[in-house]
Amino acid sequence: MENVSTFVILTAPHARCTATSHSNHSCDFAALSAANELSKALDSVGIESIVLAGDINRETTDLNRAVARYTTDFRESLRMEVRLRSRKHEIIVLDVHSYPQSSKWGTYPIVFLYAGGRVPQWADSMGMAISNELRKPITILDNLGQINDIQDEMHSLGIRAILLEFNESNPRDVLLRITRSITQSLGRLASV
Known about the structure:
This protein has helices at about 20-25, 30-45, 75-85, 120-135, 150-155, 170-190, and strands at about 5-10, 50-55, 90-100, 110-115, 140, 160-165. The chain is globular and about 45 Å long. The protein has a single domain (about 5-190), classed as Zn-dependent exopeptidases (Aminopeptidase, 3-Layer(aba) Sandwich). The protein has a 6-stranded mixed β-sheet, with helices on both faces. With about 190 residues, it is of the alpha/beta class.
């Protein structure tokens, strides 16, 4: 395949909230907003993207677990997009989540979670770009085992994937600086 462009699939599996979500954090309150901002930023620099939002609350079925892989429309939609887009593009999946400031990562604006061994250079570079932009450290955790099934499935298909956890307390300007850094980093990757 010559002149292959990058296509980014942004998943937000825990986007569906319910009346009880605030008491048990059964949805990621900032994930869909972060995914949409990231998609706009990517599109603005010519990197095509799509956002896939989870349609089932995590209390019913966690769409990022193996049990959901072959039993949900959300995961089937992800596989369909990968099949369709990989004909003309190199695919990158950014699995977008969010966490409350009260969590163990509360002081970080974003946390990268990588399942699949050592964090690859492209993801490490993206993390460094964010850290440099914010002049703050971020956390990158690797070798997570089988708890991030979207990543696991994508890796089994030869697709680059990483999970991004956004702090739900990030002010809008911080969110935009993070999305700009990710976009610039993926833009450099796409031009290689």
